[in-house]
Design goal:
Blueprint lengths: L3 E5 L4 H17 L6 H22 L5 E7 L3 E7 L38 H15 L2 E7 L2 E9 L4
Length: about 160
């Protein structure tokens, strides 16, 4: 399958559209129906984090989404244009933050995140992504943060 690339403006309403696109492409690529909810939620979390970072730092820059399936894995890359040290409101991007419990996940934002500070909400979001995606890589650079997630395709 060829790579599908989507860019969208940093508005929360576009996170839902990204979820719909990712679900359709994942299904067509051969991701198991049992994994589609995990794909949808992990991508929504990554896109919500990127949208919030853009809204605070570079609202005119688009969030980028890349989807591809190589026959063995379905991969999603969410990229923002906010330098890694600024992406979480000044917090460091920690690819493996500790989380004690996640009671419920809403489609676009982690449960209880409104009660947390921005940095805590960003860390919770990254923990949710790590719990949902089969494989996760988070790269924070001076040019932006890139979250790469992947899941196995049927038959692998």
């Amino acid at each position: 399958m060829a790579t599908v690339e989507v860019s969208f403006s940093a508005l929360p309403v576009h996170v839902r559209t990204a979820r719909l696109i990712v679900t359709a492409v994942a299904r067509r690529s051969g991701v198991s129906e049992a994994l589609l909810d995990e794909v949808r939620l992990a991508v929504a979390e990554a896109c919500s984090r990127a949208v919030e970072a853009h809204r605070r730092h570079c609202p005119d820059e688009p969030v980028r989404l890349e989807l591809s399936g190589d026959g063995r894995r379905f991969e999603v890359v969410v990229s923002d244009s906010v330098p890694g040290d600024d992406a979480a409101g000044g917090a460091d991007i920690d690819p493996a933050p500790a989380v004690s419990a996640l009671d419920e996940i809403e489609p676009d934002f982690p449960a209880g995140a409104a009660d947390l500070g921005l940095a805590d909400a960003a860390e919770l979001g990254l923990a949710v992504i790590q719990g949902l995606a089969d494989d996760v890589e988070i790269d924070a650079t001076p040019k932006g943060v890139q979250i790469r997630m992947s899941w196995p395709l049927n038959g692998t």
